């Protein structure tokens, strides 16, 4: 039965949100848009909300983060409601599974193992536990379980990290840098061959090795690229602002002027 009191109780917590979701999906009385959705149509929104959470964190926009975390939580509730309707699992199953996983993966907190470990040792223990979990799921290959729908750069990083665990890795960063030079030369050669497919392949190889360099340097490449994107936006907006002060737009300028303004914006950032 519909529970209107729960819907309008601001102190009801997660149960209120679950009831709202049930009502939105109710076949006779719910929202037509929500009723029409399925896992495939909602998944892109889930990915988008996760990135909006990351963006709010990058900008240290804490009030926005509260809202973005709520949006991401709602995505979990939406998927769980659809799963419950199909008889797959419930939201409580999701909560129980995650709680069990966290307890199992932290025996040094919830069990009898010692907490007197380095961060590196805890990371190794974590990876061993996850490997055992993958084995229980019949994931046999070292690369099994790396999600196919991850952003390509992040997936490359994770694939290489998995391969490195079984010894498939360059032992030194210098070798990775040498491989980048090799791939860049192959890309330059492909550029002159008028074969778009081969050119794309060589460009992908270069990006893949760059992701590996990030791993060797202890850098998460997706985060590094997001930071570079934010820096580019900030500096280009600075160029636009300086042009506006002169009564101009980028379309009214040329590369030489904008490049000089770009350098001025960089100098101002560093001085500030």
UniProtKB/TrEMBL annotation:
Residue ranges of every copy of the NTP pyrophosphohydrolase MazG-like domain listed in the record: 37-110, 176-236
Pfam families reported for this sequence: MazG
Catalyzed reactions per annotation: ATP + H2O = AMP + diphosphate + H(+)
Keywords from the named record: Hydrolase
MF annotations from Gene Ontology: ATP diphosphatase activity
GO biological process, one term: response to stress
Signal peptide residue numbers: none
EC number(s) on file: 3.6.1.8
InterPro entries, per database record: MazG-like_dom (IPR004518), NTP-PPase_MazG-like_C (IPR048011), NTP-PPase_MazG-like_N (IPR048015), NTP_PyrPHydrolase_MazG (IPR011551)
Claim: Repeat is one of the keywords in the record: no
Enzyme class: hydrolase
Coiled coil stretches, renumbered: none
Family named by the database record: Belongs to the nucleoside triphosphate pyrophosphohydrolase family.
Protein name per the record: Nucleoside triphosphate pyrophosphohydrolase
Organism: Pukyongiella litopenaei
